[in-house]
Write a structure and sequence with these properties.
149 residues, mainly alpha, 6 helices
């Protein structure tokens, strides 16, 4: 009887340790997601500053073109595309960590496909692509391309 009691006690301790380990793993994933969210928020806010000033972030930051002649509407669209890709990259990371449901992810994919095929802002996508994680780039590489050919 004593052996059974000891065995059950050991099983209980092991189950508790497994539970604690799983909780720590989930806490780690949530912390990673929070860090990614904070970085995305900081970048989106940075782009907002440029948008509010009427400046084209793509032209100045990525292309070092200080004499660009885009209209206010095109500048807003280009800055908005940067913000969209910032949001979608964050969404991908949240999904990869298991923190975004499949139906929400499917809706995000439809939005990404739409922005990807806004041919006027394809240069923004090409500028951002090398900075995306490999997993996110793999997802994007499967999109149908309506801009070329």
């Amino acid at each position: 009887m004593s052996n059974i009691t000891n065995f059950l006690g050991m099983l209980g301790i092991m189950a508790s340790l497994i539970f604690v380990g799983l909780e720590m793993r989930q806490s780690h994933r949530i912390a990673q997601a929070a860090q990614q969210q904070e970085r995305a928020s900081m970048l989106a806010e940075r782009i907002n500053v440029w948008l509010e000033a009427g400046l084209d972030w793509q032209s100045i930051h990525f292309e070092q073109d200080y004499d660009y002649t885009h209209s206010e509407a095109i500048t807003a669209m280009r800055n908005s595309a940067h913000q969209s890709w910032t949001l979608y990259e964050n969404d991908y990371e949240q999904f990869a960590l298991g923190l975004l449901s499949a139906d929400v992810w499917a809706a995000k994919m439809r939005g990404m496909q739409r922005v990807y095929n806004l041919c006027e802002v394809r240069p923004i996508f090409r500028s951002r692509l090398p900075m995306f994680s490999e997993g996110f780039r793999n997802i994007l590489s499967g999109f149908e391309n309506s801009c070329e050919g």
